[in-house]
């Protein structure tokens, strides 16, 4: 999913603000982190593998002076997990040098990459992000026009921050698939993937960056243009289900509130007799609270989470996911002999839930009723979530009863598509629900998701 942040300020320590904002966006990517700054047009970038706290220290922050800064936390969906793909990427082009951070996933990256290589453009990374930077960097037009021309070439999801010739740029795809929020600290403008990052640095939310809009911040202030026409609204509904931080606001709705409502609607749609409601912490907690409120069944903790282990969903391979599950949760004795309802936000591959149900029965639970606060995930995401290919999605070709047998639960129910949509208070026509419906808002590759397709590809044209 990735997290992006950008700020321009002549008075503030922009690298330090970016550093703290990235802490608020750490949940959006744990593979690498980076900050790029511009001081009088001189660009400096520091990026490395690991968490924000592992990449930066006080000495490094002091070595990043400037009036413009962008930051990034990476979660890979195109390109492998290695340093060359850490962001912000820096691309030196024929016309200009571009430092760029990207949240999203391009569906036509292969075509654009082939074009750039044929034009003799050197690509140092294997991610789709450098394609965006390279298109801007080779365009001789004025910066806003170069960005607009690039946006017309891109397909898929992109929320982007960049530094070009001392100017900070931010832009968003015409469907608004990935979030991007504009805020202010006094007279200084900032952008971030989520409002929680603005809260942390003391910024006040101004508005969402509009789909298809480009912003550029220079010494004269902030400027805005509708670079490409706004398309059919397709904000990712899975942000409300799982990915965004609960204290963020997306589309004017607080995420925590949406998740509580999902739990309440789930209790209405799939009641059961039980002794306690418990969450799969932490992403299932708001929905579990809502389920308990609506059902009248007491809410209590049944699993203790080791919060020093990363999010198992976004680990890059199955072996690490399985190990993360074993490290992450431990059941409490009080579930012994009791009928428990466990609430989680989704089942993707099914491995986590199957192991957790087994753990609860081993700990003495009499019954384990699984309630999921979203519909079955049946189709992969092409817009920036590493959900696996369809044949790896547990519910893609199983009925609900087959899924119940697969995870070993006493009962299993999912929230309906209508129930999930109603909980967000967003119009159906304003969101992307493709992972639940197989109906995509844009054209997608017919050969499926191939995350590592550029790892062995050429990087230098003739």
Brief description of this entry?
It is built from 15 helices and 23 strands.
What does this structure look like?
The protein has helices at 14-24, 52-55, 58-62, 109-118, 129-138, 143-153, 195-200, 238-243, 255-269, 285-295, 318-328, 351-362, 400-407, 417-424, 434-437; strands at residues 3-8, 32-39, 42-49, 68-74, 89-92, 97-106, 156-164, 167-172, 181-185, 188-192, 204-208, 213-218, 221-226, 235-236, 249-250, 253-254, 276-279, 303-305, 329-331, 339-344, 367-372, 411-414, 431-432. It is an alpha+beta fold and 462 residues long. The chain has 2 domains: 3-234, Glutamine Phosphoribosylpyrophosphate, subunit 1, domain 1 (4-Layer Sandwich); 247-429, Rossmann fold (3-Layer(aba) Sandwich). The chain has a 7-stranded antiparallel sheet. A 6-stranded antiparallel sheet has the order 5-6-7-8-12-13. Strands 17-20-21-22 form a 4-stranded parallel sheet, with helices on both faces. α13 links the parallel β21 and β22 (411-414). It is globular and about 70 Å long. The relative contact order is 0.12. The mean pLDDT is 92.
Present the secondary structure layout.
Elements: E1 3-8, H1 14-24, E2 32-39, E3 42-49, H2 52-55, H3 58-62, E4 68-74, E5 89-92, E6 97-106, H4 109-118, H5 129-138, H6 143-153, E7 156-164, E8 167-172, E9 181-185, E10 188-192, H7 195-200, E11 204-208, E12 213-218, E13 221-226, E14 235-236, H8 238-243, E15 249-250, E16 253-254, H9 255-269, E17 276-279, H10 285-295, E18 303-305, H11 318-328, E19 329-331, E20 339-344, H12 351-362, E21 367-372, H13 400-407, E22 411-414, H14 417-424, E23 431-432, H15 434-437
Parallel strand pairs: 14-23, 17-20, 20-21, 21-22
Antiparallel strand pairs: 1-4, 1-10, 2-3, 2-4, 5-6, 6-7, 7-8, 8-12, 9-10, 9-11, 12-13, 15-16, 18-19
Helix pairs in contact: 5-6, 9-10, 9-14, 11-12
């Amino acid at each position: 999913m990735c997290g992006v942040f950008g700020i321009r300020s002549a008075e503030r320590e922009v690298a330090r603000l970016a550093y703290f904002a990235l802490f608020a966006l750490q949940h959006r990517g744990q593979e690498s982190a980076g900050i790029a700054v511009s001081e009088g047009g001189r660009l400096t970038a520091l990026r490395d593998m690991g968490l924000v706290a592992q990449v930066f220290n006080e000495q490094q922050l002091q070595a990043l002076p400037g009036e413009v800064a962008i930051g990034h936390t990476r979660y890979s969906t195109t390109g492998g997990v290695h340093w060359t793909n850490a962001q912000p990427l820096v691309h030196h082009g024929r016309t200009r040098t571009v430092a760029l951070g990207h949240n999203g996933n391009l569906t036509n990256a292969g075509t654009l990459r082939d074009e750039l290589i044929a034009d003799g453009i050197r690509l140092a990374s294997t991610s789709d992000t450098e394609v965006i930077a390279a298109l801007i960097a080779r365009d001789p037009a004025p910066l806003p026009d170069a960005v607009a021309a690039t946006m017309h070439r891109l397909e898929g999801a992109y929320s982007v921050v960049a530094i070009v010739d001392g100017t900070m740029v931010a832009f968003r795809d015409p469907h608004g698939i990935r979030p991007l929020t504009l805020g202010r600290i006094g007279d200084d403008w900032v952008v971030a993937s989520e409002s929680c990052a603005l809260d942390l640095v003391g910024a006040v939310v101004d508005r969402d960056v509009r789909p298809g809009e480009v912003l550029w911040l220079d010494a004269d202030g902030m400027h805005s243009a509708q670079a490409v026409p706004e398309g059919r609204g397709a904000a990712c509904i899975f942000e409300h289900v799982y990915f965004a931080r609960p204290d963020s606001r997306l589309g004017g709705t607080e995420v925590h509130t949406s998740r509580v409502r999902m739990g309440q609607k789930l209790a209405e749609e799939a009641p059961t007799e039980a002794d306690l409601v418990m969450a799969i912490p932490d992403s299932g907690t708001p929905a579990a609270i809502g389920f308990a409120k609506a059902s009248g069944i007491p809410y209590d903790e049944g699993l203790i989470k080791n919060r020093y282990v990363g999010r198992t969903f976004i680990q890059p391979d199955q072996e690490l996911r399985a190990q993360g599950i074993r490290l992450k949760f431990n059941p409490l004795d009080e579930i012994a002999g009791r009928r428990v309802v466990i609430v989680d936000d989704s089942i993707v591959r099914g491995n986590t839930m199957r192991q957790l149900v087994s753990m609860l029965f081993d700990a003495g639970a009499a019954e384990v009723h699984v309630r999921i606060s979203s519909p079955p995930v049946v189709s992969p995401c092409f817009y920036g979530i590493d959900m696996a290919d369809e044949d790896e999605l547990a519910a893609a070709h199983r009925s609900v009863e087959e899924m119940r047998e697969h995870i070993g639960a006493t009962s299993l129910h999912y929230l309906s598509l209508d129930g999930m949509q109603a909980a967000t208070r967003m119009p159906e026509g304003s969101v992307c629900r493709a992972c639940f419906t197989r109906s995509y808002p844009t054209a997608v590759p017919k050969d499926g998701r191939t995350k590592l397709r550029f790892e062995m590809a050429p990087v230098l044209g003739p």
